[in-house]
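SAMPLE LOG
Freezer: B-3
Tube label: C17
Construct: single chain, 193 aa
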Amino acid sequence: MPPIVLASTSPYRRELLTRLRLPFAVQAPQLDEYALPGEAPATTARRLALAKAKAVAKGLPGAVVIGSDQVADVDGSALSKPGTHEAALAQLARMQGREVVFHTAVAVIGADGAEQVGEVPTTVRFRVLPIDRLDAYLRAERPYDCAGAAKIESLGITLVESVRSDDPTALIGLPLIRLTSMLAACGIDLPVP
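STRUCTURE (predicted):
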């Protein structure tokens, strides 16, 4: 099996990839993450996932490199990682009572250089909560590195009314169902004996 490299420093993506019980290394992609003017959120997620994989793959010939990115979409407007408490509170306040689509893209560059890119949308309906509850959530979880400041795998679940997706791991940051199909196309069949 060729070496597998996750082009990410995200602890969430690392934990998800560990579930597949494959040996893998982690390498941070060196690139600026930003949306292009007028770019749709789903397009941004796919472009950045592939750019991350390419940035790492160029120095690792013969490896299978996985890149991923997530962009939250509120009525066609992208929400990225908030970074600060104030920005996170503003994002959560904006999402209350609304449906937000989290576009999670995954890209795989095979050992032969072949590129695959896919995206799994997840629609989340947020509850309407008082600002002090949103503030308490942020202080407890500190999800400033999560698109839309919603960390669904822990206390963030209390912020939502419903979640719709074809892949339950997409919202956390790495769509494993789509990824396993991509890895199979690279000759890596799962589960590995």
